[in-house]
Amino acid sequence: MAKIRLATVWLSGCSGCHMSFLDQDEKILELAGKAELVYSPIADVKDFPENVDVTLVEGAVGNEEQLELLKKIRRNSRVLVALGDCAVNGNVTALRNSLRNSDEEVLRRAYVENASLNQGVPEQVPRLLKGVLALNEVVKVDVYVPGCPPNAELISRVLNELLEGRTPVLQGRFKYG
Known about the structure:
Blueprint: E1 4-10, H1 16-22, H2 27-34, E2 35-39, E3 52-58, E4 61-63, H3 64-76, E5 77-83, H4 85-89, H5 102-113, E6 128-133, E7 143-145, H6 152-163
Parallel strand pairs: 1-2, 1-3, 3-5, 5-7
Antiparallel strand pairs: 4-6
């Protein structure tokens, strides 16, 4: 049986969802037997590949680079999973949306007002969007996995359902075990 092509992506967020993904401990070995990791911040792959079966996306969309990447991910993924509260609803990342000119004001506060040396916005920073977006504000999301971060057991359960060809049902309180 061919392995499922799995990708994980980290947009604007804290990487806590990837830490929970790694907290699956020995279940990661079981996952490795069923899935090939084709793209991830924990793998050295530079360009998002085609024909991905399942993609877990952590974080909200905060800049133009991430916006374009998410569109590419959607085109190249059969199932797209919003992993964690930032991906699901923007969460902490979207707090900057309360600022009037969130893109300019965030950069000015970070690199000018709060800097003691070399004040000035660096040119290498990807261009920020006017506001942070949850994934479903940009593309169709197939599965939502809430939590900040979702725990490893929930991630494992969702992945196993997807790898078995089933859509995970995440209604009400999730029962473990």
